[in-house]
Amino acid sequence: MSAAALLEQYRPALTGHCYRMLGSVVDAEDAVQEAMLRAWKGIDHFREQSSLKTWLYRIATNVCLDTLSTTNRQRFGCKGSRLVPVEACGGTPAFAQYRDGGAQPWALLMLEIDGDRIRSMTSYLDVETLFPRFGVPMQLTT
Known about the structure:
Elements: H1 3-8, H2 11-22, H3 25-42, H4 52-75, E1 82-85, E2 94-99, E3 104-114, E4 117-124, H5 127-133
Antiparallel strand pairs: 1-2, 2-3, 3-4
Helix pairs in contact: 2-3, 2-4, 3-4
């Protein structure tokens, strides 16, 4: 079996792993592609001190952490953020969050309510996919 085919069999599981870390299908697919490229370039150096699967997960995790680190350095500061209620979330309270006074889409926030309290909040960062699906504009007008 070729090195590419050997690595490729792990793509679906790695995509799920990266999605759980990054919260975006698009970012997860990009991270897996980068992880596969790094693994393919380094396959000759793989010494089987661990399983191939463990080695690939470590590479993918490092790519995801690099991605999160870069995003955080860019995505710090919520001063001037705006929240807009999202109506089409099947009865679940949700908000579109924008940074820079509405110029930059940031996240879709979904709340889990328990009585009169917020039990949890989940942030979905794949705004390019989710905002259009929920009829939310990519920028707010002032």
